[in-house]
Amino acid sequence: MIELVVFDMAGTTVRDRNYVGIAFQTAMQSRGYDVAIEKINPLMGYEKPLAIKMMLEAHEPVQSKITPELISGIHKRFVDEMIGFYSTTSEIAPLPNVEDAFAALRAAGIKIALNTGFSRDIANVIVGRLGWEDKIDTLVASDEVPHGRPYPDMINKIIAELQISSPDCVAKVGDTEVDINEGINAGCKYVIGVTTGAFTREALLPYKATHIIDDIADVVKIVSPSHSLV
Known about the structure:
10 helices
């Protein structure tokens, strides 16, 4: 029996018209690295300092220039861009059927958690703007654990905090390859890829999710077949 569903944020539960990728691109450009958005999007599920390091390793020919200070500076610019955007934009919104799915899962006695490659300061702004404080049971961000995705640390922290029986009672939902690998590494019973974000169905297929869906409403059908949004 599923006791907990762990949802990613941008691209999975929160509408993202590539705002995150554009902010990442702007942060990289601030230090002279002009990176195509197509190269950035596949990294968006990762903890952001790690994504920055990976991007620098691909675009900085002098590897000795890739210092913790450079990574930190780019990450600070990214965080500032994201907080500024999410604090003021009228574009912030849940993806279709997300809030109904949250309500249906809770009605079935299933706990809801968010986890994210964002740092906690960005995640808090998003949750606050959407008014989700009372719609979820907990939130864990990548800077609150030793290792971000694809390591299972965030899911393990959520399981401990919410006193979930075992990972076999958990479903993980996300829109990227690294979300899927996180769920697999955590031993989740269901690892559900969703096509509303960075990856198409075809791009998700090689990563061996238990399910790939186009509508978050299908999560309810998978984890609690006796409940639905219909």
